[in-house]
Amino acid sequence: MLGLHKLFLTLMLLPFLTLAQPIAVSPTQTPQQLVNNVLLGAGVVASNITINGVPGLASTPFGNIGYFTNTNATFPMASGIVLTTGDAIGAVGPNIGGSTTNPGASQSVAGDPELNAIANGNVTNGVVLEFDFIPAGDTLIFNYMFGSDEYTEFSPSNFNDAFGIFLWGPGISGPYPLAGYPNGGDNIAVIPGGTPVTINNVNWVTNTPYYVYNEFPQDTYGDAIEYDGTTVKLTASASVQCNETYHIKFAIANVLDQAYDSGVFLEAGSFSSAAVSVAVATVSGDTTIVEGCTYADFIFTRPEGQTNDTLIINYTVTGSAIEGVDYNNMVNPIVFLPGQDTVILNLTPTQDGLNEGFESVTISVSIINPCGDTITSEGTIYIGDGPIINITETDPLVQCYPDSVLLTASASGGYAPYDFTWTTLGGIVLSTNDSITINVTQNGVVQYLVTAVDQCNFSQTDTATLTVNQTIAIDAINMTEATCIPTGTLSAVVSGTTGNVNYSWSNGQQGQSIQNLTSGWYSLTITDQVCSASDSVFVGAIAVPVANFTATPATGCAPLNVVFVNNSANGTGYAWSFGNGQTTVVQTTDPQSTQYVTQTPENYTVTLVVSQGISCVDSMSITIPVDVCDCTDPEALNYNGSANVNVPSNCIYPYPEVEAPNVITPDGDLTNDEFFLQYKNVVAIELIIFNRWGAIMYSASSTDLTQSQPSWDGTSNGNEASEGVYTYTYKATGVSGGEVSGHGFFHLIR
Asked: Rounded to whole angstroms, how far apart are CA atoms 106 and 252?
């Protein structure tokens, strides 16, 4: 019945799903294609590839093995193989919240001794992929992740779904026998310490550093996959002998039942056994870079199992580009230090302004592996020429200058968009936009340099010329600061005026001098018979009191103790009102505290008034919502109608009670015509009735007892059941989630 219960939960949660960025699964490749084209990396040759499950084929598109790809940045594998206990497409996200079962591709693995051993139970359905392989190196490595919808409801539990990677061959020994391998095999799908990867061994309470929570709706992987939990990305490794034949078996299975899918993701290209490999990485993702713009990284990698020693590698550089001329000189040889599996060489091309077309650079590494074979790996990059940038800028002539003049620039001929930098002739940076506002302060000719840089760092510089011819000027604006009351003053000093001069201030006042000002910005425009000029000034303020404080905590359940930290400035006195009738006046900024006790939810307004003398004050208020936290479920025995925050752990519910009749008389007289259960404090009932030979005469369940309740009218398949003794079993779910079950017998009398 537990398997049915799991499926029921899945169906209930389906209407609440939302889609995001799931992985994609293609089940149309054969196991041979998946192993050879997806799983295998450098230095491994596979043969005798078999699978016990249902491979994904064009004619059978729903198998329990498939090829997955991923563009979701939160999921740590870009592509690879997925093996599942159900259909492979069942691994596709988004996470549906409860649990998912896809039994269409299930295959029996009940007799698999290795899976039974690591699961410590009876395995049922799943998939087994196995093949022979010959490694080119002395170390075997690959990456995998195990996931399941058994998490978290059934972890740990008897449903201990398991995954194993069993390896046989020279130098390998272990407890798993296989014909042709007298030393037995070993399981290398283990976490540090040798513990096998199963539901009970890695979960939210056991070996938690290796577990990732992905439960709906807080999906760690952003809806990439279905499973409610996974391991972290793990690495399996083993020491092997090069050029020898090994047998490997990937096996995953359900345990005890066939419900709730489990799956394992095998990272593409990670099944490898080679020496040093060379790969190329560029910003654009292809094999082309541009002089003076982009660069390339040559990435040298050695197997993780060979990182204990220092390794020195000499490499060969070929191609039409010349090192030290067309690109930078690079370190050769390179050195892998102990614990280091990757070394990166940066190649940066030189912008020489020559039209040379595309030039190539190829780096090759040839080493002799532990078997004596020569293995060569190489990467190639192509260098292209850079363009020339043209700049168009404004050269304005100002007859009567205002406060500012706008200079603009645009660029063409490079790789848009462009970044602009405006500087003085002396190199002082003025702006980094495509335009600049110049404050005009004197007559004459002023020049500025504008530099345009495109997305490849190609640049060009031009000159913008500003010519100014004006006589009227605001030489200075004298200012006195304001206090808490308007006491600031401003007075303008002008020169070069012709005839009468009008003084217009931004606050509406007129005249060369103004007073009774508050702190703030003020602008002045003067106008004579020829031109106008503008300027602005800030009237400062003598430091005024500023009220500021924080409350910790800012809200909570009564009784609530709150500490108030006074962050105010420039005050000499502090008056507190805590909103609960308590007040205090202090001369320091020491923290204050109070307690809020209430039987009903209330909001308390806390006010701090900061004073500096008599005239200058400032205040600040914070509202502290205080909740009443208790049981708010009306079904509970201790329901608190005044509480506004539910505390489920406080709720006490009545225990379910069930009674059954011992006789029914289905004779149509409306008395004892049907068999049904009498109950109290019950929200769901499941009822099954058997005849004396154990055959089910009636089976029903209901989660809405007000609309329908399981009851038997003494018939089976439309026929009246014979008189006699019948037995029954029931399971009832209480309002608090507790269950009671029972059984008994009754007489049917006609």
From this structure: 11
635 secondary structure, DSSP code: T
Q: Is residue 659 a contact partner of residue 633, using CB atoms and an 8 Å limit?
A: no
CATH code of the domain occupying 549-627 = 2.60.40.10
Q: Summarize pLDDT for 244-254 with one digit per residue, the tens.
A: 999 999 999 88
Query: 661: which 2 tokens?
Result: 């009749």
Residue 373 identity (one-letter amino acid):
D
Contacts of 179 (CB under 8 A, 6+ apart): none
Q: Which 3 state secondary structure label does DSSP give 465?
A: strand
What is the third-level CATH fold of 277-384? Answer: Immunoglobulin-like (2.60.40)
- CA distance to 358, 378, 504, per residue, from 320 (Å): 9, 16, 71
Closest by Cα among 166, 191, 392, 363 to 277: 363
Instruction: Name the residue among 42, 138, 132, 134 with its Cα closest to residue 372.
Output: 138
Helix (H) or strand (E) run with residue 234 in it:
strand 234-239
The Cα–Cα gap between 100 and 261 comes to 6
Q: Please, is 43 exposed, middle or buried when counting C-beta atoms within 10 Å of its C-beta (0-12, 13-18, 19+)?
A: buried
- Side-chain half-sphere of 226: how many Cα atoms within 13 Å? 28
Residue 354 identity: L
CATH topology of domain 390-468: Immunoglobulin-like (2.60.40)
Structure tokens given for 445:
């000719």
Q: At CA 263, angle to CA 261 and CA 266, rounded to 5?
A: 170
Instruction: Name the β-bridge partners of 198.
Output: 162
Residue 278: pLDDT band by 50, 70, 90 thresholds? low
Residues 33 and 56 sit within 8 Å (Cβ to Cβ): no
Residue linked to tokens 């009903």: 600
pLDDT score of 107 more than 90: no
Give CATH for domain 657-748: 2.60.40.1220
